[in-house]
Amino acid sequence: MSYEFYKVIHLLGLSMVIMSLGGILVFAINGGQKATNSFRKGAMITHGVGLLLTLVAGFGMLHKAQIPGFPGWAVGKLIIWLALGAFVGLAYKQNLARKLWIVLPLLIAVGAVLAIVKP
Questions:
Q1: Residue 4: its pLDDT value, please?
Q2: Taking the mean position of all CA atoms in its chain, how far away is CA 30?
Q3: Which of 41, 18, 24, 13 is nearest to 96 (CA)?
Q4: Do 23 and 102 meet the contact criterion of CB atoms below 8 Å apart?
Q5: Are 114 and 77 in contact (CB under 8 A)?
Q6: Is the backbone of residue 93 left (phi > 0), alpha (psi -120 to 50) or beta?
Q7: Are 29 and 100 a contacting pair, CB within 8 Å?
Q8: Are 94 and 28 within 8 A, CB to CB?
Q9: Distances 57 to 2, 28, 37, 94, 98 between C-alpha atoms, Å
Q10: CB of 43 within 8 A of CB of 24?
Q11: How far is 115 from 119, CA to CA, in rounded Å?
């Protein structure tokens, strides 16, 4: 598989994660509870599959780019990936949902900078 293929899968996974987190955050900000979310299972599946695609494709791109070792920028992206995974558990806490609404795009921006600049 080509580098470009992995890149598309990586972006697909990222969009699935953002879509599911965005929906859950809006639901929680508007007072929704975990037990009353009728699409909770669908959102969680989308989130999990998105995380898996993002991780696998990210490592695929590292391999295809023949980057030796595990550079610092990749560690930073892995930490962001872990945070995005944890956000789904924190999203239903109403006081955190509003804060995560701000933090989510900032983390995505930091991840983009790390991927583009590769400091």
A1: 96
A2: 22
A3: 24
A4: no
A5: yes
A6: beta
A7: no
A8: yes
A9: 11, 30, 30, 33, 30
A10: yes
A11: 9
- Give the position of tokens 């993002």: 54
Question: Which two three-digit tokens encode residue 113?
Answer: 């900078």
Among 36, 19, 9, smallest CA distance to 88 is for: 19
Identity at 102, one-letter amino acid code: I
Q: Is the distance from CB of 47 to CB of 20 less than 8 angstroms? A: yes
Mean pLDDT, 10 residues at a time, over the chain (119 residues)? 96 97 94 89 97 97 90 95 94 88 96 93
Distance CA 35, CA 52 (A): 25
- Token pair belonging to 19: 């879509």
